[in-house]
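Exercise (ungraded).
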Amino acid sequence: MSKPDQPATRDDASDRAPSPGASAGGVQPAVTRSGTAAGSRWPRLFAHSARQLGTFGGLIGLCLVLWILTPHFLTVSNLLNIAQQTSINAIIAVGLTFVIINGGIDLSVGSIVAFSGVVMASVLARAVPVPIAVLAGLGAGSLCGLINGVLISFGRLPPFIATLGMMSVARGGALLYSDGRPISGFGEGFRWLATGEVAWIPVPILLMIAVYAVAHFVLRRTPFGRYVFAIGGNEEAALLSGVPVRRYKTLVYGASGLLSGLAAVVLTARLNSAQPIAGISYELDAIAATVIGGTSLMGGQGSVVGTLIGALIMGVLRNGLNLLGVSSFVQQLVIGAVIILAVLMDMTFKRPKR
Amino acid sequence: MNAPSPVLSLRDIRKAFPGVIALDGVDLDLQAGEVHVLLGENGAGKSTLMKIISGAVARDSGDIVFEGVPVELTGPRHAQELGIGIIYQEFNLVPHLTAAENILLGREPKLFPGVIDQRRLVREAQQQLDDLGVALAATERVSRLSVAQQQMVEVAKALSLNARVLIMDEPTSALTTQEITELFDAIRRLKERGVAIVYISHRMEELFAIGDRVTVLRDGRHVGTRAIGETTMTALVRLMVGRDLTEHFPKREAAIGEEILRVEALRRNGVLHDVSLSLRRGEVVGLAGLMGSGRTELARAIFGADRIDGGQIFVHGKPCAIRSPRDAIALGFGFLTEDRKQQGLVLVLSVQENICLPSVSRLARAGCTQPARETEMTAQRIAELRIKTPGPHQRVMNLSGGNQQKVVLAKWLCTEADILIFDEPTRGIDVGSKVEIYQLINQLAARGAAILMISSELPEIIGLSDRILVMNGGRIAGEFTAAEATQEKLLAAALGKN
């Protein structure tokens, strides 16, 4: 987020050093300004969360409206239900947030969900221990993602093209592998991953929370996260600063694949069935959650916290419209409008004053 | 001075952005047929003033009088219709269209509604170009034109709008000496046609070559307007910075030590041919040459940014394989790129994130970044380099050019690089910041770094270097000591005349 108090038109930025509170008169020595440097973390923290606060406000507002309109909305069971239904999209959207901050796009996540699902299910069908089957599913997802990454960073394909290809390849792979038929009926141990609870909280919600906690930490507190931002903001500058750009780009797509694999685990366990046609249009939901959450499609800016709020907004909206008995046709329309509205508002706030 | 009534006059223009007063009561009169130079350090308010004149920014108060009539500019389009054109440093051309299509973009002559009269379009555009004295076919695609030619297309575009006032923002920053001469010829033709030109440049020598009057801004205030013939460079610099800049090229006493870098027969097919050079501790080596002579390519090849096809690089006497900038940085290289916005900085990230980018892995503990240490390191560099920023978390895009350049420098101070390659370190930054950058280069050399400095400004190269290499056609075409170098000798070598 740009700090709101900057005259940030493009050329202005090149010509004017903002001097906070300094009137135009008199030349101030720069040293006195930098003296306050260490203390200025707060405005930045605020600037970051200002955008998220707005989105969060939207989520709360939406909940309030639904609470007034329908008595069933604000019940513990319904809220848990929403969180659980949101978890799959939310997990995929974390991967997309990384990819988009990195300056790319991943259209293949939905197909990877299907592919990882059938691979895992076929392993489960051979009575292999659950953790090994889950690892196979995660591995299949990661592999697809890494292939995307290699094609993009070493093959220099545009991300849109590479992942569009993978979208079809992984779907075809899933259909071929499963012969077009769903693989169903798993043991209790595996299904616990979707139906189980720890301290009354369903496992998918816990998984989602864990993924977000780790992703937030990685993005904000590790060199990997810093490089994701730097590459998305200016790949050439990152390269010339010694960032191993290709390695990290590959890893980012690998991470997106891995998270799609994790989403496949939750989905398969919940449905008690792996479908080769699962996950269709999941990429659009995940992109929508990311964008509503304030991540810039231009790269270099964004946060997973925003994405979580974005995914929740979509989940609450779907649930609320269902409770209100709105037809699924109208739901599509409303969700589309919300996406457009969210980005429109974002741009209005970000746009510099004329 | 106001005997003939001015084309455009500004009275007491004020503009404040939140937290910054950009303009604090500025007056300006433009006469028909004059080149009016606008001078000021980065941040003095030149850009804001130009944006107000061209309608891109609305003023807070003050009067704008155009041809005797007070006007209220509603936007860039309105200004254009009145006859006020502006040519920005970054051109607004559509690269895949032809020169003619760009010149008359949005105003194409029509055969009948909805269908463009292609022949008239080309004819009218060609006329504009010919009037400017530019040898350029209007049917050429803009993407195939040189920077200078693109600029002429911009000028032609402004003139096709019957511009009475033309603003040129740093028009020569990317031009060769020859192209500058041609630009000045075109400007003189514009003067004859009675166009008033506002000319912004940091290159003082140009002002005396082309300007008629000069107005100096400092900190958003009008500090003086002078006829060019009645002033001197020293007087103008004093007006701009509010003090005397005693030493333009500060001298340094650095002991030159052992050899740190040796490059032998470096080759990159079609670009670099058997280039050899060496750098010693405490030494500043200037690298001169015309654009396209291979200077930047040499820097990138040494730094591992471009593949090399042959040759050997020795650092501290040991042969090294540098396959990526990462390898180079690990060996102690730092590279300040020619184009800081495209290659040097991640503009959407903060000062701190940029300064620490090459060091973030080294600073990390147990896989975690260390924000406190980064902030500390950044604060230290901000103080040391006197970077004007509200704090380490300010986005780099909000800093002025000179301060952005200091951020790039700070990156390499943090990695403790001892082989520094500076590519046009002072391009597009103001006089005051330039001198600061010179002093920093000297300090770095005094601390024992070896510096290779590429520059198109010959006085700068001669003033700072211990030794000067000149490139031509991807080869080293000459080597001079600081004592024997003159602008004439360097230029002759750069042109390949020996």
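Further reading is listed at the end of the chapter. For now, observe: Chain B touches chain A through 82 residues (CB under 8 Å). Chain B has a mean pLDDT of 87.
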